[in-house]
## 1
Amino acid sequence: MKIVSELKEIKELCKSLKKQEKTIALVPTMGFLHAGHISLIKKAREKANIVIVSRFVNPTQFAPNEDLDAYPNDRERDHKATSEAGTDILFEPLATAMYNENHGAWVEVPELGKLLCGQTRPIHFRGVCTVVTKLFNLIQPDFAVFGKKDFQQLAIIRRMVRDLNMNVEIIAGDIIREDDGLAMSSRNAYLTKEERSLAPFIRKGLLLLAEKAKNGEHNANSLYVIFSQFIQEHIPQARIDYVKMIDKDELTELENLKDCAVVAVAVYLGKARLIDNILIESK
Ligand code: PAF
């Protein structure tokens, strides 16, 4: 595995790979890799001749009150994990190289970016879209792989690629879970032992909604009450940021379930803000 940190070097390397008619799949990450990332790398491996993983904690997607400085980091472990997963090139630029001091250009999908997580993290998706565009410009990948856990991020990136005619195919990777159902996330590292033992109730609450929906409960507000009561009962110290039943493409909130919808949630537990989602069906 080749490790590249210079922007000029990754650009030239990718240009030369393209000249050799190699296809490239990119897996953008912020490091501290877990099995979820590894499954995205494996998906990328199936798609293209060359797999590039970026490892960059993007400062512009964090608000000043968020966890940029505390974001977990283990460079050596990431190098081992990416290499073992079959990565060809690991791109890990410095923030000072990625962003000029007077950086002033942004990419946004404002309609989708202001919903759900955008309510409590208003600049988040602008930062995500901007850094992903920068990575696409540097690497010119044929494919880019994103996880379905960050459901809103995936929908926003698909919309950005469609609306700006970007020449890359977006591939979605399934949510990878711990044995007890907790969705894998680098931020799970913030949980205390006790919080970690309670966190799987978020998934259990979502499974309960899926079951209720199948059995005829199609009203969004009733489903929200069921979820809130379940969380209150099993994780009293948790605070629900949102629970929303949404259209899977438009992300707009639905009042009643017709055929299928996504229920997306964000829950604060200790120092972590955990997100998860589930596809629910009416029959
Ligand atoms: O999902 C993430 O880890 C980040 O939002 C991404 C896509 C790597 C952009 O920084």
## 2
Amino acid sequence: MSKFIFVTGGVVSSLGKGLAASALAAILQARGFKVRLRKLDPYLNVDPGTMSPYQHGEVFVTDDGAEADLDLGHYERFTGVSAKKTDSVTTGKIYASVLTKERRGDYLGATVQVVPHIIDEIKAFITNDITDEDFVICEIGGTVGDIESLPFLEAIRQLGNDLNRDNVLYIHVTLLPYIAAAGEIKTKPTQHSVKELLSVGIQPDILLCRADRPIPEEARRKLGLFCNVKAERVIEASDLSSIYEAPLVYHEHGLDKEVCKYFKIDAPAPDLSTWQEIVRRIHSPEGMVTIAIVGKYVQLLDAYKSIIQAFCHAGIANNVKVNLKWIDAEQADIIQEQLRGVQGILVPGGFGGRGVNGKLAAIKFARENSIPYFGICFGMQLAVLETVRNVLGIKEANSTELDPTTKEPVIGLMSEWMDGDTLQKRQVNGDLGGTMRLGAYDCKLLPDSKVARVYGAPLISERHRHRYEVNTAYLKQIETTGLRFVGMSPEGDLPEVVEHADHPWFIGVQFHPEFKSRPFSPHPLFVSFVQAALERFLEKDNNK
Ligand code: GLN
């Protein structure tokens, strides 16, 4: 039977519970276990798909088309296990499911209540779709003490009983603040947070304590005493210079040893050599490359989490540090000035008109100055638009997302596409939630294209999240400019990849390659883009 590990957070938010859960999963995997990670989010949205990145950061997309919390990205990057729809749930989704059952008459005769119906639904989610996993690690979003996380805490408390307490482990991640005036790390907020957990019937088994410095033995002893946890199960998690150090450092502090001891599992020591090599490479780059990212959410870098990580991985692969220069797309008039000296330009995914002119200016600059350009989703659509406007000379060309009545709809709403055997249809005024073309779709690459060489394969599968597409009525005309459509959906009706024949590296992709990059298996497009940016640097040096 699978062992369940529940990760809760206390004292403050943003403690890195997702990272802690991911790192623990990675170490357990390195001990030879099969792991699965899940996220339970207490907010009422059915999924984060309709939330602004400023509210929530990036929306992560799974192969099977879930729009999910960005922590699922960490889970995949640390374990390589592709997350599924069944790995991410919110209060909204739980209620939607209970209410659907109520309308169907499934609870006929019963008064439908939080206890037991909502709690049962949460428990069913946690235990559903598990096969032969040794460990299922579930992270509860939010902070203990929030009103909205109560049903989740109640569900995991009950599971401790239902599944037997020795099959269930509770880890509480807290903060030990350093108070300069006292010259001390303080344990009181953690004591209170554990009290809060105890008040809902959960005794944590392990405390994972975040701190900005090493935790003195005395503080651990004190926490153990007051929180009813063995001192060796009060585990230090101090700040790290790279997130990929977490598996090594947590192992050093005994996290996996305590987990195995708790479950009375006699497991071989973990083989962490892959993580050691990743960390060694991150800390000893042999060069640097500067890539500009032109987007509209540059004030909150969580909005671009997977892209940042994909660049970190591509840096590891190329043995360089990738320095990301964030450029606010809304400052269109000074964009080109800001782009001077960068070795590559990326326009990421996005929605809506704000910042479009800045992005178009950046693309034009990259195209005209032979600077490597990488367009992702919206960044691909805008690359097409830029060429149509400035090379073909169709100045009124637009996307119907930006101008619904444009006379030259080069980018238009996707009205229908095949999702496996199902025909998906969309209309202009349809629902926004969960209705984009989502998840993994195949794409066929032209064998003589650069992108096929980069992938080393003629057929690829990548994750999508978009509502608009390049209008195929314009393809022939666009190709006369040298911008080739080198990747199409297998049916040949949806443009997926463009590249400029007369440019050293100008590639736009309708999908989101960043979601599939991992430190131990970097995404080929990011690796190749960083390499092209490096080569440009060398060329510039040689020309001096
Ligand atoms: N707004 C565009 C669309 O919906 C691009 C989406 C994206 O960049 N993820 O098609």
## 3
Amino acid sequence: MPAYPQTIHFVGLNTPVGIEWAARNLDVIGAIPAEIDGAFFRAVPDPAHAPMFDDDIVLSGDGMVAKFTIQGGKVDYAIRYVETERHALEKDARRALFGRYRNPFTDDPAVAGRDRTVANTTPVWHGGRLLMTKEDGLGYEVDPDTLETIGRWNYHGAFTSQTFTAHPRVDPHTGEMFFFGYEADGLCSTKVAYGVADRDGNLVSEHWFDQPYCSTIHDFAITQQYAIFPIFPTTADLDRLKSGGAHWAHQQDLDSWVGIMPRDGKVAEMRWFRGRPGVSAFHIVNAFDDGDLVHLDLCLSDTNAFGFMREAGGIQRDQREISGGLTRWTFDLSKAGDGFEERLIGPPGDMPRLRDADQGRPYRSAWYLSMNPQGGPPLPGGPVGFAFNALLQIEPGNGRIDMMGLEFGMAISEPVHVPSAQAGHDGWLLMVVDRQAGEADFKSELWVVDANAIAAGPVARVPMPLPMRAQVHGAWVSAAQLASAKAHQAA
Ligand code: V55
Ligand code: FE
């Protein structure tokens, strides 16, 4: 069997595991609060085969869907591959057939025209369906009980885009889901499809618009009135793809843009605001409107956080020399022109988490991952190659910041938030924490943390019996939601 390349994308916490397994009644150290009742789904990229090209990256790994089921203080775990078309073809061939990240011109001719997506970025729950998503293709529906793949999801053919974002947004009051797909009609296209689904998961509308150039629109935001599309200057080029090159290259001198339109889909009313050149953000914490003002809080950096996207754009900058921070952009829709205001509201970091109930509304508190100033060098792992080792709670209204800093040799992945039924309680955060136990030996645990007392550390820990590859995003789905799963209703 060919070996995996010994690069940052395949060593450390990124060492491929590729084992589908399940375990019941894992050991729990401490006590899991009884009100935590549901499932923590995780998207884990894990390449089933050694890649065709040695410069392959984490983002190409086959999506695995993992599930912690938590009920009555007990924890079960299961993980399976998402049976994408790509995974099935490579499984049959017993080798990689798809080439470089999002470049079909580098594939084995045997798979020309086949679905390349690996469904490895975010588990999305909406309208009784669990989707495993990646922004270069449609989501795959997965049975939330068995983790078996049901198939590609396009709203019974109603959603015509070829792609579906890994970062849809759900309005907590209406239950509607707002989403989009970019490169909606093909590689390097500027076409963006914007969709709205009702609370039962039926497509209500789909409207198309053009972005200023073909950028990677990884995340977007909604407020009670608006949909907000940030455009950062990481661009695609068809000639580069045809010559076997990178899909994305960051352009440090190109302007960024933000498009704001009514969230019900009036694309003709889109207003474009011009931002600083060269900046980048992958994740937005939240957005909200206040009269004519629209506030957008995002994890902003002064260049692209992915080394391979910088290098393709000729930018030589070490990961540790990237600066940025939690940033608020404020747009005044009563004013003409394309300007807006910028204010720093928190330390650098990424992988933000919000209470679902605060989506698109003024919010008191949010959580995200950062670096512990006392934590020592980060462990190699995760999509950018360096794992976070601190969890922050931030209250943008008053600047209060709290931190759960991890010790040397530890890493943390993005938490999910579980609401609490107790009045005045901020709920719970669940997350996987890894610890280096030997040169190539990592131990993983599930941690349960009081969301309003993170500095106190976990109230419960669940040591995992097998290694776990680094996750991208996760989703919490309550037992009540799981009971409404479409997969269990009579066909
Ligand atoms: C991201 C993740 C992806 C991807 C593009 O976190 C961007 C950002 C896990 O896959 O394909
Ligand atoms: Fe993301």
